[in-house]
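Predict structure. Input: Pilus assembly protein PilP, 178 residues.
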Amino acid sequence: MPKQARLLGHALRALAVVGLLVGCEQSGMSDLREYIKEVKARPPGRIEPLPEIEAVEGFVFDPRDRRDPFVMDRQTTEITSDGASLAPDPNRPKEQLEQFPLTDLNMVGTLQQENGALWALVRTKTGQLYRVQVGNYVGQNNGQIVAIKPDVMRIVEIVLEASGEWRENEQVIPLTKP
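Output follows.
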């Protein structure tokens, strides 16, 4: 009989819980039902109309007298001498900062010696700090430092054009403050 008594006890407890829930349903939900009725009774709000979309006038590209942007314009390319003499020396030993693209290099300061020589402090993206001077090579395009000023470092790169000619390209690395 103890098994039946336990089952009866569980059944009574379950009935008590159901009774409490029904009581909560009746008393606790009436205010919620009233609020829902009130919200549904309100007049609907006005929806703002979509803004007017202005028509954009079409444009037809007519390349009759214009140059093709995908073909190099040989008249505007300035090569200081023949393209072969600009070619970098393939036998020159590479310097440390030539392994990094210029976008990964930041000029973070300068040092000046008593004789007036100005050095630039360059930090790589990996956090390494280097001291460079005019004549050092940096970047992956045979870039050589041509000028160092307290707020900027100028570099001339030698890049190979699609036509197979070498040309000089000037880049600037400004001083960045930490």
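The longest strand covers residues 152-160.
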